[in-house]
Amino acid sequence: MNTIKNHKRIAKQMYFHRTTEGVEPKMKKEYDSDFVVTPEYRESLPDMTETVDAIQGANVPIQQVGVSNFKLPLKFATENGDIMTLEASVTGTVSLEANLKGINMSRIVRSFYAFKEEVFTLDLLEEILGAYIRDVQALNARVKVSFSYPMLQESLRSGLSGYQFYKVSYEARTTAQGIVRKFIEFDFVYSSACPCSAELSEHARDVRGVYAIPHSQRSRARVSVELTEGATLTVEEMQRHCLNALKTETQVMVKREDEQAFAEMNGAYIKFVEDAARLVFEQLNTDKRIKDFQVACSHLESLHSHDAVSVICKGVPGGYAADFMDFSSLIC
Predict the structure, then answer these.
(1) Cα(216)–Cα(275) distance, integer angstroms
(2) Pair 273, 308: CB distance under 8 Å
(3) How far apart are CA 73 and CA 88, in angstroms?
(4) Model confidence over 37-79: pLDDT tens digits?
(5) Model pTM?
(6) Coarse DSSP helix, strand, coil percentages of the chain, rounded to the nearest 5 percent
(7) Minimal CA–CA distance to 311: which of 302, 321, 319?
(8) Could you tell me where the DSSP H helices lie in the chain?
(9) Which residue in 65, 225, 275, 280 could disulfide with 295, CB within 3.0 to 4.6 Å?
(10) Residues 212 and 200 sit within 8 Å (Cβ to Cβ)
(11) Are 149 and 166 in contact (CB under 8 A)?
(12) d(Cα 16, Cα 14) in Å, to the nearest integer?
């Protein structure tokens, strides 16, 4: 034990000597590939996160600190039970109390890797969050896992099929009181034909005999939901909610008959951006598993040089507040 203390004392002296005096001790400038780390040597390594006197700036709490966009392959189960492995991007943060220099960020990564062989679900994310808090010893924590989820989409009339990819995120948050909240974020890309342009085009045809085409645009809805305790909601169900509400999802594989069908569909389901938000609201509000939700829609206008946007939320006290402003992330 005394040897370990001496190692730590010497390491600390060397560190502060270098940083305060600007003097570099003599050392070998070569990599020792044969060096073996012993338990005693590992224990002697300095841990700067434990030093209060090394804090720079105000000695105050930090609400979120952690890692962003570390990637690993995770297994996901489809609705019919098939298992697929997808590249996932993980962001994990914790709160940091005053008088603490920092956190051991590698523990966040290690907490995730301990579960990498399991099939990933929101319930598993909650379990990972618990391990994550124990490893880092924090009061508040949140973990978000983002991935691209493929689903086979049938064409409208030709019988072709192709993969549509959906941007999805699972998130779990916990508070110092031990309350866990779980969220799903889902992006749905659709076509929006302008009702005003459609009527003006028909007017030009009827009154003046002029051939006119109403404008439509690729559009995106970002649907964020918070689930009730114990509830589950699949990615496929999120897609069906959006499809049932908006109808005009963009297509993957098309022949002429599919393109004609899509034109007819856009004519049957014309919508302003306000309509889109309310249609998704109506659909999500019928699902009792969804405690709260927010819908942000962006129509990438083909008439204007700017986009048309709308945001709506369920209105749960303490929940989503329809304060979304990152519309640039909805560009298709």
Answers:
(1) 14
(2) yes
(3) 6
(4) 999 999 888 876 655 567 889 989 888 888 899 999 999 999 9
(5) 0.85
(6) 30, 30, 35
(7) 321
(8) 2-21, 39-44, 106-113, 122-136, 195-208, 235-246, 256-268, 273-284
(9) 280
(10) yes
(11) yes
(12) 6
Q: How far is CA 245 from the centre of its chain?
A: 22
113's tokens: 């890797």
Q: How is domain 179-332 classified at the architecture level of CATH?
A: Roll (3.10)
Other Cβ atoms closer than 10 A to 113: 10
∠ CA 78-185-164, nearest 5°, is 50
Domain positions in the chain are: 2-48, 61-178, 179-332
pLDDT in tens, 109-130: 888 888 888 999 999 998 888 8
Tokens representing 287 are 């699902």
Angstrom distances, CA of residue 104 to CA of 67, 108, 132, 234: 10, 8, 11, 33
**231 neighbors 201 (Cβ within 8 angstroms):** no
> Which of these CATH numbers, 3.10.50.40, 2.40.50.140, 3.10.270.10, 3.90.1720.10, describes 61-178?
3.10.270.10
- The C-alpha angle with vertex 229 and arms to 223 and 230, in degrees rounded to 5, equals 100
